[in-house]
Design a protein that fits this description.
This protein has 1025 residues and is of the alpha+beta class. The protein has 42 helices and 22 strands. This is ubiquitinyl hydrolase 1.
Amino acid sequence: MPQLTSILEEASMPKDPNHYKTGFWGRGASCSLCYGIVSVMVALSRRSKVLEDPEPAVRREVCSAIYRLCLGVSVSGEPMESTLVAPMLSQLLLYLKKAESMQPQKIEAMQAPEEGKEPYGPACRDYFWLVSLPDELVKESLEEPQNCLIDINELTNKIAQSILSRDYLETRHRTVDDDGLIGLLNLLTNLLKHRPPFQTGKGGQELLVEVFNFLFALPNPKLRHVPKCKSPRSRTAAFDLLVELVKGSPQNYAVLHEKLLKQHQPGPNSPYPWDYWPHEDGRSECGYVGLTNLGATCYMASCMQHLYMMPQARASILAASTADAKHEPTLKELQRMFAYLLESERKAYNPRSFCKVYTMDHQPLNTAEQKDMAEFFIDLVSKLEEMTPALKEVIKKLFCGVISNNVVSLDCGHVSRTLEEFYTVRCQVADMRNLYESLDEVTVKDTLEGDNMYTCSQCGKKVRAEKRACFKKLPHILCFNTMRYTFNMLTMLKEKVNTHFSFPLRLNMAGYVEKQLMPQHYQEEKLKNSDPESEQYEYDLIGVTVHTGTADGGHYYSFIKDRTAGSRDKWFLFNDAEVKPFDPNQIAAECFGGEMTSKTYDSVTDKFMDFSFEKTNSAYMLFYERCPVISPDNSESSSTTLDSDNILSSPTSQPNAPVTFELSKELEDWIWQDNMHFIQDKNIFEHTYFNFMWQICGYIPQTILPVQPNVTQKATQLSTSFFIETFIHAKEKPTMVQWVELVTKQFNACQEACIWFLEHMARDTWWPVQVLLKCPNQMVRQMFQRLCIHVIQRLKQSHSSLYLQVDREDSDEAKDDKKPVDPAKIGNASCITKFIKTLLSLMEHGAKAHLKHLTEYFGFLYEFSKMGEEESKFLLAVGAINTMVHFYLGQKVNDFVDVSEGEEEEEVVALPTDKYKPASLDKMITLVASLVEKSRDSNMRLQLSEKDYNAVAGGKGFAFLYQQIKDNINLQQTRNLIHSLCRGNNQLAQAIICMVSQAISRHSEALFNANSTHLSAWSIHPDIC
């Protein structure tokens, strides 16, 4: 160290006293390096700069300097002779316990960091990067532990225990990365790359199981904090650790293989939807759930979100008893909706069931008809008031106010008063600049005199009087309906007023209450009333509903203030299913209406002109909440004082999460059952997991192959199950081709895997049905078809001799009785033929419902028939032609009746024609024609079974051929089929020509217009004639 400091001191002194070099690369750089070395040494003796310095850049620079010094690299990048690595790392590891204890900052306490940057404050991320042990040191410690300062085995066990005992610090929404957990996972992964004894021991297997649970444990109402790894970085680190734990370890791989295989088996919620990506349908990052728009239900969604965001109303509705409640179905559906908005992990709730039970004007809500939001709000609040006594009390206190209409006689001194309850205050917008002017209009004094004198109700005389309305009682939530819609008496049309109309964030109602406008009467009432009204007249804006569009139609959305603990003064946009943060400074621009100006280019003057037009978006409903009374003991009193007994904070909820309420067990079980399935889907459908599975299925088996040769079969089962059950269902699958290549290579390498694949699909039709029939993606269906063909070709050489093998007992009986063999007894000796028979059975069970997807299904059967003579003979032996004909004609195989001439023909129920039919059944006609031709013996005679022949050419009217021609399906192959049937059979040829001629004359010209060319070709074909 003295030598190093002397060199730096010499470099910092000027060589020429008359020459002073300035700039960054002069003496300043040397001094900077000196201080850098000093700071490094201080950091080694004190952890303040590495762990506790709040500035990320300072921590990074200090760690970089220590790292260079450990590796023996100078500032210029040149290597230096150094032996400091082990001593420095041993010193740094002394602070491992301190680094582990550091927790991520609470999101409320953090200053919002810039994109991609660390938040300000102490952190351990750079420390864990610094202590990543060099490979040479780890190798030396494992080979010669007595000569190394660091005991790697002990360190590995210690870190594993730290990972297992670490608290659950990451949250599901708006999470902050747990750098301590991520650092420990990465450090342990680095150690396991060198295969310490811990990996293959009992501790390694136990850690594997726990880390798997860190990734895939599902939360429930009692364990909301699981799994431990929720952020993308921690999950990536955990996946990397699992890979290292199973690398080269057959025992660990077997444990992980079993767990992963269970995740990709058909279950109660299978199959996954096609083009599925649950991360797009997850709860918004701000923690709230939207409502799906069913067509024109935005008015309802806005109203429900305002009601839900009022903690008092939410708590009361969820706590209400549905027993003996009026409007019970509505209350139950409202509770389901609020419970879903409160607890669900999905993006939005579908309110269809609510719309079915809610009636307005004695009719269920029509989801295609837009209603006025203010009318719906009043209707909903009125129904809530009628449901239960407890709800009535809450609704009255929250929304119900009283306006007094006063007429004061100026001659006789009498006063007439009428009281009127209100839920919303209607305020004029036309010719008004702001809300205060509109309130002035509501409470303006009007003098009745002259011809308009008032008849006193008490003395019966005509007297002069003053008429005035004022607010006698103000509710806790004050709702305003801005009257943006007017009726034009000239045009007799409804119009929308788009003029500028402002409203304050804090509203003072003191000038509009009885105390201010009628003080004498107020004092009299105050003396009579022992429970006077609150004299707090200030209100804070808590919500705005905006209408955009015209008076005839448009869209509602809302800006709502969050009033739960930890989220005060945060605003959110609720626009149907979308919920996102909103800047309240933009309220004026988004809600006041008025005009806006934009620049428009005028090609005549070659200038940009100012163009003004009215905004179509403006506030339609305003929601204000009474400000809390500030007491000396509590400077910030809660504004949610009503029904506080019903508001319960969950012990597992985060401070920044919405307030959690008690739900009934029925609602809680319903929501969390759905949540668990959805969270599992999110854990599986992510690119990090897909990359992990790629390593587990492709790379890891290669590391185990030398010690366990049969691992390829296991790996193929897992990769095939994952690929078919999960991967092809994903919306984002950029590595589709690579996965197909991997599975193909694995089938090439393992014949047992091929047998398992076909046996599995022969026993269970789930994969063929889901992929070959139901999948809407043609590329996926083609991929599956080619994969099945490839597997069969791989097994053909060893299985072709088994295709036509008959069960032993049935074979002996057939020889004795000389009866034809039952097709069901053929082909049970090979997995290939069992799979083909299973596919053929699908034509009777489920294929008709997916007619437009059958191109690849019949294409597969046709490709199978082209493989060789054995394949064609097998299809003929099991009655494939008969099966396909009756599938096409819409009948079951055993229902076929050969109708002789003169008898009434049984009605043929054909499949419905649609635009997909020709394309999807082309291959079927090709296959039938091909099999008929291949059935010829050495004498060129057809050797079709009686059932197959009757299906194709039997019955009165040749139903199969007639329907083909009528449906215009692959007429080229239909011609080939007729040619094959009629060769050497003049009687059949004449009958078919007769059928065609009669069909042409019987049906209209338009029906057979498209087929006329082919029909004329048949009629002159020499072989047919």
